[in-house]
Amino acid sequence: MENSRRHFLKSTCALVAGVSVYPLSRDQANADTGIRINNLKYAMLHDETKCIGCNACVEACREVNHVPEGVTRLSIEQSGPYGKYPNQYYHFSRHSCQHCEDAPCVNVCPTGAAFIDKESGIVSVNADKCVGCQYCILACPYDVRFINPVTKAADKCDFCRETNLKQDKQPACVEACPTKALVFGNLKDPESELVMLLKANPTQRTKLDLGTRPKLFRITAKQGEIIL
């Protein structure tokens, strides 16, 4: 197995070394991944005004998706404290896969292990095809991919595509959030809670200038909304 993996990497280095880590155009990306127009485009909203940094989402993800210790598919990053005692406050933001429509990780993968699911638009990984070359890790501008120490394959958040979604459940993080700070849904459904919230609130996405078209939205926290 190791010999075949080394042989594969040697044979593909010259090819992949010339691949840009910058995203392709939308038409190119769709042609490469075979994405077709359908009625699903899953996305997530993190309402930072409701997040209390409890990490229930992180632990639920670990349990449901069997994420080994030492790595994580998502994290909640705390900034602060801001203000003066006794009115100090913190902000909490989600760090996880952005499920880009033009995904650099997919563009550079030499084996097709990194792919965009045709039905849902979810960026996912086929561990059986992954050779551990780490090109996707280098290409990801959001620094959210890692090598799973058990499978030895690239790993990351997939919106629980292989676990909860197969059982018609919400992603584990959404189900576990005690303050309902996470909302998951279909961007193509105008009556979904997600779309209604996006229409009713100003939201932000990360690194839009790269043209990746991420599908992780956030309602940004305002001064003093999280007080500890």
From TrEMBL:
<dbReference type="Pfam" id="PF00037">
    <property type="entry name" value="Fer4"/>
</dbReference>
<dbReference type="InterPro" id="IPR017896">
    <property type="entry name" value="4Fe4S_Fe-S-bd"/>
</dbReference>
<dbReference type="Pfam" id="PF13247">
    <property type="entry name" value="Fer4_11"/>
</dbReference>
<keyword id="KW-0408">Iron</keyword>
<keyword id="KW-0004">4Fe-4S</keyword>
<protein>
    <submittedName>
        <fullName>Twin-arginine translocation pathway signal</fullName>
    </submittedName>
</protein>
<dbReference type="InterPro" id="IPR017900">
    <property type="entry name" value="4Fe4S_Fe_S_CS"/>
</dbReference>
<dbReference type="GO" id="GO:0051539">
    <property type="term" value="F:4 iron, 4 sulfur cluster binding"/>
</dbReference>
<feature type="domain" description="4Fe-4S ferredoxin-type">
    <location>
        <begin position="42"/>
        <end position="70"/>
    </location>
</feature>
<keyword id="KW-0677">Repeat</keyword>
<dbReference type="InterPro" id="IPR050954">
    <property type="entry name" value="ET_IronSulfur_Cluster-Binding"/>
</dbReference>
<keyword id="KW-0479">Metal-binding</keyword>
<dbReference type="InterPro" id="IPR006311">
    <property type="entry name" value="TAT_signal"/>
</dbReference>
<feature type="domain" description="4Fe-4S ferredoxin-type">
    <location>
        <begin position="121"/>
        <end position="150"/>
    </location>
</feature>
<feature type="domain" description="4Fe-4S ferredoxin-type">
    <location>
        <begin position="88"/>
        <end position="119"/>
    </location>
</feature>
<dbReference type="GO" id="GO:0046872">
    <property type="term" value="F:metal ion binding"/>
</dbReference>
<keyword id="KW-0411">Iron-sulfur</keyword>
